[in-house]
Amino acid sequence: MNEILKRFPITGRVVSCEPYGSGHINDTYRVETDNGTLYILQRINTHVFPNVAGLMQNIAAVTEFLSERVKDPREAMHLVRANDGAPYVVDDKGGCWRIYDFVTGSVCLQKIERAQDFYECAYAFGNFQRMMAAFSADTLSETIPNFHNTPDRYQKLNRAIAEDRMHRVKDVSEEIAFARSLAQEVSKLHTLRESGELPTRVTHNDTKINNVLMDEVTGKALCVIDLDTVMPGLAAYDFGDSIRFGAATAAEDEEDLSRMRLDVDLFETYTRGFLAACKNLTPLEIETLPLGALTMTQECGVRFLTDYLEGDTYFKIHRPDHNLLRCRTQFTLAADIKRHLPKLTEIVSSVARG
Ligand code: ADP
Ligand code: GN1
Ligand code: MG
Question: Of the four, 249, 291, 327, 332, which is 20 to 30 A from 181 by CA?
Answer without folding.
Answer: 249
